[in-house]
Amino acid sequence: MSFRGVFIGIFCALFVLFAGVSxxxxxxxxxxxxxxxxxxxxxxxxxxLKSIDPKEINQDNLQSLxxxxxxxxxxxxxxxxxxxxxxxxxxxxxxxxSSPIYxxxxxxxxxxxxxxxLVLYMLPQIRVDGLNLVIFCVFMLCVICIxxxxxxxxxxxxxxxxxxxxxxxxxxxxxxxxxxxxxxxEQLQKLEKILARRDQKTLKQTQKIKLKNEQLSNLLSAxxxxxxxxxxxxxxxxxGLENPKIEQKDLFYQKIRHQVVRLNxxxxxxxxxxxxxxxQVQFEEFDLFEVVQGIIQAQDNHRIKLLGETTFVRGDVFxxxxxxxxxxxxxxxxxxxxxxxxxxxxxxxxxxxxxxITQEQIKKVTKKFYKANPESENSFGLGLFIVKKILTxxxxxxxxxxxxxxxTSFAFRL
Length: 414
Prior knowledge:
- By secondary structure, the protein is an alpha+beta fold.
- It has helices at residues 3-49, 62-69, 87-90, 130-153, 155-162, 167-242, 250-275, 288-299, 317-334, 359-362, 383-393, and strands spanning 72-77, 80-82, 101-103, 106-113, 116-122, 284-287, 304-308, 312-315, 339-344, 347-352, 399-403, 407-413.
């Protein structure tokens, strides 16, 4: 067999191998992306379904509802399926989960609305990006041209290497060319590492962008949810005031005032969350015991007990007041017994004897928009997040200890 035939055979084998690897990588990458897109669409559809009356979900409008949500719907009522889905999907053993599940080529999540079980599912469409394969083929053609020029330039040397009549000379030439090929291989390996690092960096940036978009979407959903209830109550109260048959209108005025206060509180807290930074902190020395004593007197609540002594600290008085007010309000909300506050040596500690916090909740209570009770209308889920942010600006941190149904303490040191 001639050297040309060997060269062509080796190249064809490598081309097929690399093309297969490139195709497989492309399919896996697009599969992950398709699954992620399907999970995101199902989560959005799930959020939209919670605001729909379960009575409106029936066989007549199921198709239009599915098209509006952008996902497929399978409805089960009293072990009877309401869907145009194939039998293979209806026989699927669906599992309950707090997030979408990918199983047997399908992404789904189960939702219960009264006497109905709704299954939101999608079959991810896996596509193959042909552009990457085209780029790869062009790259391999360039490699062919380079190798072919290399072969033409050193044709005589290669023929001498393969010639059986010049074995001694061939050995020296083979050793020399092998060294050159080894250097060339090392250069290719370095280039491969550089390209791999760039691909990894690009992937990390893409993941960061997706995470930011998800966080923004969750933030907008949370704010929208917090605004929805007070605005709805204000609208209903205004409708009641316009009704001439209703005489007790003071109740509606009171409801409107209460909801306006809630909206003002929300905007005030959102301003803390998004605009507060170290440049706005005005450090000065003040008596922490005196500040807390003034807050307790303004609260005028006999359940609050204060122990301690004069202790001077350095910080922003207004911001530390917000920290103390939030912690006192939080303690009063979740406990009906006595609230104990201790101040000594620059340390503030507040203890309540209420329902307590589980270890799992302790990790979440300082996160933005987290509520221990999601149905609570008197909390925006921002109080402890603001406390944590203010203490961070003061180079301090909030320590939380709790025994469920016994006691809970929050402490920090300035």
